[in-house]
Amino acid sequence: MTQTPKYRPATQLVHAGRLRSNFDENAEAMFLTSGFAYDSAELAEAVFKNEVPHYQYSRFGNPTLTMLESKLAAIEGAEACRVTATGMAAVHAAMLSHLKAGDRVVAARALFGSCHWIVSTLLPQYGIETVFVDGRDLAAWAAALAYPTTMVLLETPSNPMLEIVDMRAVCDLAHEAGALVVVDNVFATPLLQQPLAFGADIVVYSATKHMDGQGRVLGGAVLGRKKWVDEVLQPFIRNTGPSLSPFNAWVILKGLETMALRVAASSATAARVADYLADHPKIERVWYPSRADHPQHELAMAQMSAGGTLVAFEVKGGKAGAFALMNALKLVTISNNLGDSKSLVTHPATTTHMRIGAEERAKIGITDGVIRLSIGLEDGDDLIEDFGRALG
Ligand SMILES: *Cc1c(COP(=O)(O)O)cnc(C)c1O
């Protein structure tokens, strides 16, 4: 395997993790095989006893997945990685592999809808106590983490309101309470923010988003310490089967080669579009981490190296105003995906965050006029013209 520890992230994204077969192919090969063969019954026995390293079955491991896992670990600076079929499979595996009845979880309230459902609905079914806090409020974190806790889950910046959590402060409190901290780093990507450097124990991704980056396949990743990944996460994945298809892993590997270029371009365009929207008379407010008017601008910029590819904004006129704008856009597509090469808008209150209910939405500031905008790879001038036309 190519070891490239000294290279910078853009180079790692192209080279790290490559495994070459006997054919010396230059591009990563797609190993579309469910099983692997053994030369002898004795070898199969030794492999199952963990005496000889050898792929066995693609639910447990596959060379294309290994290449993706090694590349992601290199970018993140993590000891180990396992990839999963979706981002939600990654969040679910990271939490359920570790938690048991009687444990306690503290989570920031501003979470992706399905992450919120895991904490609010699924975990309590297994006798796990769960507590939500306002992720921006360190006093609330301190109060919740004054009790022994097993795991903390947070997302920063959050989906869709781009709330920022002070990772260093929360990780310190969580570690004192005995908890492992899981950070969902989808919005920032590993290029703009490295949660492990702020004390996080586990980082999770939806690879569906910027890693594929072209809206093609679903995927997820969990990164952390080798001992935890080998002893806690891997047995859970091996025996419950949230495994990623080698085909999807290969698509994501190809996507990663261009991720640094894509994220830099989309983030620069997002900053321009955010400024344009903020100055528009029909827009009430814009949330974008690198803008000085973001309520946690300084913290955001202490944790992130750029504002990212997502913008949230509130249209005047509530739901009717938001729907009118979305329907009038010609270039920007209505879709609840994000991190695509195509720019996308979604109305969180009626889609991604509909099921959490009006009360929870109010607590995290998702009003009926809020639109989430995921900036793609189009020319920023065309996007600004599309918004100008649609708002006019
Ligand atoms: C999309 C997303 C997920 C879930 O990922 P899937 O690949 O859709 O399962 C989790 N967290 C965040 C922040 C997301 O944006």
Detail the poorly predicted runs: none
General shape: globular
Q: Helix coverage percent of residues? A: 40-55%
> Which topology of the largest domain does CATH recognise?
Aspartate Aminotransferase, domain 2
CATH H level, superfamily name of the largest domain:
Type I PLP-dependent aspartate aminotransferase-like (Major domain)
What is the structural class? Answer: alpha/beta
Major sheet: size, sense and barrel closure? Answer: 7 strands, mixed
- Number of E-type strands: 12
Ligands, deduplicated: pyridoxal-5'-phosphate
- Order of secondary-structure elements: HHHEHEHEHEHEHEEHHHEHEHEEHEH
Q: How much β-strand is present in the residues? A: 5-15%
CATH class of the largest domain: Alpha Beta
Largest beta sheet: strand ordering: 1-7-6-5-4-2-3
How many separate domains? 2
Radius of gyration: 21 Å
Overall pLDDT score:
96
**Terminal residue distance:** 55 Å
Please describe what this structure looks like.
- The chain folds into two domains: 9-256, Aspartate Aminotransferase, domain 2; 261-391, Aspartate Aminotransferase, domain 1.
- The chain has 392 residues and is an alpha/beta fold.
- The longest helix is centred in the last third of the chain and has 20 residues, at 259-278.
- The N and C termini lie far apart (55 Å).
- The protein contains 15 helices and twelve strands.
- The structure holds pyridoxal-5'-phosphate (PLP).
